[in-house]
Design a protein that fits this description.
about 140 residues
Length: about 140
Amino acid sequence: MSENNNELGSFLAGFVIGGLVGAATALILAPQSGEETRSLMADKTRDLRQSGGERLHQYREVAGTRTQEYRERAGGLVSEARGRVQETGGRVQEQARIVLDSGKERAAQVKEQVNSYVRKGETPAQEDDASETAE
C-alpha cells in the first residue's frame, strides 16, 4: 500500500515539475514580448475569473433548487411517517382497549364466582368434589 502511495507521489511530483518547466519554456520561447505575454496572461486570468464566477453562480442556483426539492420531499416523507405512526398508534390503542375490556369482563366473572362461593359458604374445591360425586 505504501509502495503505491510512493509511486503516486513520485508521479504527481514529476507531473508538477514537468508543467512548471513547460510553462517556463513557453514564456522564454514565446514570440511576443514580455509585456505582451503579461497582458495576454492578465486577459486570460480575467476571462477565467469571470467564467469561474458564472459557473459558481450556476452551481449555487442548482444547489439551491436541489436543496429546496429535497427539503420538500423530506417534509412529505415526514408527514407521511407521522400519519402512519398516528394510524398505528390508533390501532394499538384499539387493540389495548379490546384486551382491557376482555380482562375487565373476565375479572367480573371471577369476582362473581368468588361471591357465589362466599354466599354458598363453599370453596371451589368443594364444588368440584360435589360435581364429581353427582356424576
